[in-house]
């Protein structure tokens, strides 16, 4: 497809903003998917092409958090197993469930997250330095992580919020470390999905890579902000993004 200079600028700018939003909270695809569709892509092609930037952004964010010593890899295997199982079940469910279920699920999840942050912020924002729990010592975390995976497989949009709730709420990672692990989980999820989309020949690589430049730059800067920001600032950023996610769900 033909790509104009305006398209290039639009993709880099929206990718940059999405990289920041996805690294610190979630919901950046609410910007990038419309940008890709404005270029004339069908929804399924835009959805597939968007994953190129998400993978690059996830890798950038993960490496950045690890470089600053904020990516805790001691329990990643037990964390990823229930998420992958839930993701597979969610993908199967999405294949057979009526499409009209997606909007209520997305909207309900966003509103629930906003209420939790507003009314009981300690659930998703433990104090910095809080000692996280291991999955093996927290049986209930399997349900939280599995549900996060299921949601990601079923809906995908806004999965960053659900991952933070699962990692901070059940395993008590502070928001910085929860965001770091969220980037790893999202990278694993999305890489699998991207592979499927590549096999199905749904990915347009040139716009996808242009978008990835913006995603990567935004994620790199967001990691630096997350490391230096106060927990209260991160909490309110997460709250505002959930409200935007709710608004986007109502407009779907």
**Quaternary arrangement of the chains shown?**
single chain
Q: List segments where confidence is low: pLDDT < 50 over at least 5 consecutive residues.
A: none
Give the percentage of residues in beta strands.
Answer: under 5%
Structural class: mainly alpha
Number of strands: 0
Question: What is the makeup of the main sheet?
Answer: none
Task: Give the overall average pLDDT.
Answer: 84
Shape: globular
Number of helices: 10
Number of structural domains: 1
Terminal CA distance: 26 Å
Order of helices and strands: HHHHHHHHHH
Portion of residues within helices: over 70%
Rounded Rg: 17 Å
Walk me through this protein's architecture:
This is Probable membrane transporter protein. Keywords: Cell membrane, Membrane, Transmembrane, Transmembrane helix, Transport. It is found in: Cell membrane. InterPro entries: TM_pro_TauE-like (IPR002781), TSUP (IPR052017). The chain crosses the membrane at residues 5-25, 79-98, 105-128, 148-168, 180-199, 205-227, 234-251. With 252 residues, the protein is mainly α. It has one domain. The protein is 75% helix and 0% strand. The protein contains ten helices and no strands. The protein has helices at 5-24, 29-38, 43-67, 76-96, 102-119, 140-154, 159-169, 175-199, 205-228, 231-251. The two termini are 26 Å apart. The mean pLDDT is 84.
């Amino acid at each position: 497809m033909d790509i104009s200079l305006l398209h290039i600028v639009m993709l880099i700018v929206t990718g940059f903003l999405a990289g920041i939003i996805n690294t610190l909270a979630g919901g950046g695809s609410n910007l990038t998917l419309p940008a890709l569709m404005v270029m004339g892509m069908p929804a399924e092609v835009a959805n597939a092409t968007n994953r190129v930037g998400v993978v690059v952004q996830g890798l950038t964010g993960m490496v950045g958090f690890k470089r600053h010593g904020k990516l805790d890899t001691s329990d990643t295997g037990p964390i990823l197993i229930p998420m992958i199982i839930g993701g597979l079940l969610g993908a199967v469910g999405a294949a057979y469930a009526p499409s009209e279920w997606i909007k209520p699920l997305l909207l309900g999840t966003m509103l629930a997250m906003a209420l939790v942050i507003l009314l009981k912020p300690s659930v998703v924002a433990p104090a910095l330095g809080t000692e996280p729990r291991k999955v093996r010592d927290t049986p209930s975390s399997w349900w939280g992580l599995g549900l996060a995976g299921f949601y990601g497989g079923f809906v995908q949009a806004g999965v960053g919020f659900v991952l933070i709730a699962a990692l901070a709420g059940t395993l008590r990672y502070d928001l910085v470390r929860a965001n770091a692990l969220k980037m790893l989980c999202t990278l694993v999820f999305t890489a699998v999905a991207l592979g499927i989309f590549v096999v199905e020949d749904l990915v347009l690589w040139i716009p996808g890579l242009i978008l990835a430049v913006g995603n990567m730059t935004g994620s790199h800067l967001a990691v630096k902000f997350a490391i230096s920001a106060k927990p209260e600032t991160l909490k309110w950023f997460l709250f505002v993004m959930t409200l935007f996610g709710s608004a986007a769900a109502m407009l779907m």
